[in-house]
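Can't paste images in this forum, so I'm doing it all in text. The chain is below; anyone willing to post the predicted structure tokens underneath?
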Amino acid sequence: MKSDRKQDPVRAREHAEPVERTNPVPWLLGLVAASLTVWGVSYFLLNPGLVPDTSGASGGGPAAVGATAPAVADGAQIFVSRCASCHQATGAGLPGVFPPLAGSEWVNGDAKTVARILLLGINGKISVAGATFNSTMPAFATTMSDEEIAAVASHVRASFGNKSPALTADLVKTERTRLGARATPWAGGDELKAQP
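Text version of the structure:
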């Protein structure tokens, strides 16, 4: 048989058939997996803020949001996570798509109007700094507490060159109550201007 392999070049390149054996899993792999499991569990146990609180009421409305909101809302952090994707980190917006917050007459105008915009959002045409925008801004009434809305509005009114006074959570609460059960967004700037 050996002489056949030497004479046939194709058979000479072939290797012997592999043999299946029962090899155990290396103990080091088991040790690494167990260590990662212990680390992962301890990480979540030592950082309770990472685990969502499921003990509160699940109404989904403002009361449920307020119950889990932090004691002091960080307006800058809320802006980065909820607003900067459209209005940009600089507050300059996107020309023709999303209006600027920097120098906006809406941002620097009546504080009640700012609260109303954040609570219900806008769907339609609005003129900002001489340019017209026709897009949708989401409502935050059901996803943010009064404190969070006041914090992000205050941040915007004091950033990007704006120098307007801060909003209070009480003002946002008053506007939320005034709007009652309304859930539809404002139909552009004209409807907002018509509000008392």
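Confidence is low (pLDDT under 50) at residues 56-61. The two ends are 102 Å apart (CA to CA).
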